[in-house]
Amino acid sequence: MGVVELALLAVIGVALIVTVAAFSKRLGIAAPLILVVVGLGLSYLPGLPTFTVPHDVILMGVLPPLLYAAAVNVPVMDFRRNFGAISSLSVFLVLFSAFATGSLLFVLLPDLNFAAAVALGAVVSPPDAVAATSIGKKLGLPPRLVTVLEGEGLVNDATALVLLRSAIAASAGGLASVWDGVADFGFAVVAAVAVGLLVGFVTVFIRSKLHDPVLDTAISFVVPFLAFIPAEELGASGVLAVVVAGLYTGHRAGAAFSAQARINDSVNWHTVQFLLENGVFLLMGLEIRYLVENVDPALLTVRESVGIGLGVTALLIVIRFAWMGPLILFLRAKVGYQERRTNRFRTALDSMKARGLADARTQRRHTRGEELYRRRRADVAQLRSEGLDWRGGAVIGWSGMRGVVTLAAAQSLPEATPYREQLVLIAFTVAVVTLLLQGGTLPWVIRILGVRGRNATEDQRDLATLLDQISDAGLRVLENPNACLNVEVEVDPDVVERVRQSTFLRSELAWERVKALGAGTSATPQLQYRELRRAVVDAEREALLLARREGHFPSRTLADAQRLLDLEESRLKPRLGEH
């Protein structure tokens, strides 16, 4: 296929993705589900070539930026609070599922050795959180459920790929014992975390020194590959290194990057994530025809392969649901333990204070202890308010859709593997069935269970309270305006008052939104002000367009005015509680 044909297919693919994504919102169906079906239908069109994408393209070209885009948007605070649930689902459940499905395949396929069977188990074990989180956010799932699903989707890929590598090595005789496999797994994790932290630290430092948004964006695009390639060369998990680098970058962005850099990052990586993840689901549908045509019926027919795939799917669903019961009990017990430990820590801090804070070192220790205590209390309060019950467990249990990693990892199985084409078809069967069955019915499950998520009024009240808190800190700066401006001359009191009033207005607007959301009342004064200001900006934009048509002003002047209006319009964009 020539360059022109590839470019044309890429344009058609992007157009399809955008079209499907736009209509999926109206239909209330997650875009990945529709794209799989569309891809499958297109693959059987007369004259359309068969599609197969080398697994290296997905694993090295698509997966790193896709995981990085997701990781930079996951709050480290939420990830830390839910680390127990995330690690249970993304590490231990994946390992258990891989060995359980491997055992089933070992029994069903007589020519397949156990290590190769576990390799396919590793391929089909990690769920893809894309469809689940997109549905969950649309239906307003509790934030903790979304965080757990996102965190699981970030880490389980690394677990599965490391296990896949070890299983392939064992199948080829490359591992002498089980302990060699355990050691390889441990090294892959530890080295990946170290590489990810190092890459995250270095790139954040460099980007914090840049003031050109173009240069900053250019560096941000190579960060996932800077983490992935060295980790893979060291024999570690490149995927986990990318996730760690993304989490570190997202956590440090608020302090290290400018506002413009953060805005650019958000837009750029959301776009990358949208195109890559939906493109992979479209490719999944397109490749099914190729897989079916390449199955050798002398070894195992297509019907038998699909039947085994359905059996593996049923086993994975049963295992995931069975896992959720003990996990929920464990998480409840863990919250109680954290609360008791926090209370003991409070007692220790009080004892330290009663003995006296004699020197500066003791005072610093006590101050750090108080900060740690407040964080632990906040953790306990948050976990109590957003506790996982059986309904949340049922939603997570039904959110086991497979996707990107299953697609790529299945095709990375060695050519000498017995039943290779059939194993790839089995993996694709698991991915497609879970996507269509679980992804298609997940909205019904959420509604039937009555799972309710974020409360808009409560969220807005929290925002207003936070704005009051940070406004108080900001207004204290105005007590000494000369120090802010670094000048000796007296600052005009009217200027100080204007700054103070603009700060008050922001908090006042936030509380007015709370009132409007709670009572469903008509627009409040501040909301009316924003509506009128938006109308003024719209009129100004029309006048600017007229001036551009008439050509009386230089293009650079028109561009400057355009940027000013864009900035004002983005600031006045409707928010929660506005129309």
From TrEMBL:
Membrane-traversing stretches: 6-23, 30-51, 57-76, 83-108, 185-206, 213-231, 306-331, 423-446
Annotated localization: Cell membrane
Keywords: Cell membrane, Ion transport, Membrane, Sodium, Sodium transport, Transmembrane, Transmembrane helix, Transport
Top-rank taxon: Bacteria
A Pfam family per the record: Na_H_Exchanger
Main location: membrane
Membrane-topology descriptor: Multi-pass membrane protein
Cytoplasm in keyword set: no
Gene3D superfamilies attached to this UniProt entry: 6.10.140.1330
Record's keyword annotation contains Glycosyltransferase: no
Limits of the Cation/H+ exchanger transmembrane domain: 15-446
InterPro entries the UniProt entry points to: Cation/H_exchanger_CPA1, Cation/H_exchanger_TM
Protein known as: Sodium:proton antiporter
Organism: Arthrobacter gengyunqii
Phylogenetic classification of the source organism: Bacteria, Bacillati, Actinomycetota, Actinomycetes, Micrococcales
